[in-house]
Amino acid sequence: MKFPHLNKKNASFDLTPLIDVVFLLLLFFMLTTTFVNLENRVKVNLPSGDFAAAEPSENIIVSITENNTVYLNGKLIDPLKLTENVAVELKKASNKIVVLEADTNVLHGKVIRVMDLLKQGGAEKIAIATQPVEKK
């Protein structure tokens, strides 16, 4: 009995197409993960200020838009449930800072009410986000 595959001395497997596919998958996933953070951002017209702000990517972000809607980490939230949800987020990592992004046109009283809700939720450090002053 003869086996035809035994007659071949150098059987090789070409890895080039496999490497190309793996490289394209890697490239695809790297690019799509960079756009994930952009989708979670809420459009807020921040007031300008001359002091430094906290890094928003590693903190809890509470946003108040011009029409007084409240977002927690880019997701719409009922202001009555803000205290509970902030408490849950702070239990995950207690050293996080809560960054409050309030639109320029939001009334001061609304910002103070949201800050009170954040304090009730256990937020000890609240930073107010601003945009840098344009130098002329």
UniProtKB/TrEMBL annotation:
Gene3D superfamilies named in the record? 3.30.420.270
| Lineage top rank: taxon | Bacteria
| Biological source species | Candidatus Sediminicultor quintus
- How does this protein sit in the membrane? Single-pass membrane protein; Single-pass type II membrane protein
Pfam families, sorted: ExbD
Q: What is this protein called?
A: Biopolymer transporter ExbD
Family as reported in the entry's similarity comment? Belongs to the ExbD/TolR family.
> Where is the organism placed in the taxonomic lineage, from the top?
Bacteria, Pseudomonadati, Atribacterota, Candidatus Phoenicimicrobiia, Candidatus Pheonicimicrobiales
| Molecular-function GO terms, alphabetical | transmembrane transporter activity
Q: In the UniProt record, does the keyword Glycoprotein occur? A: no
Tell me the GO BP annotations in alphabetical order: protein transport
For this UniProt record, the keywords arranged alphabetically read as follows: Cell membrane, Membrane, Protein transport, Transmembrane, Transmembrane helix, Transport
Membrane spanning stretches: 15-38
Q: Would you indicate the residue range of the signal peptide?
A: none
Q: Where is this protein localized, as stated in its record? A: Cell membrane
The Gene Ontology CC terms held by the record are: plasma membrane
Its main localization is membrane
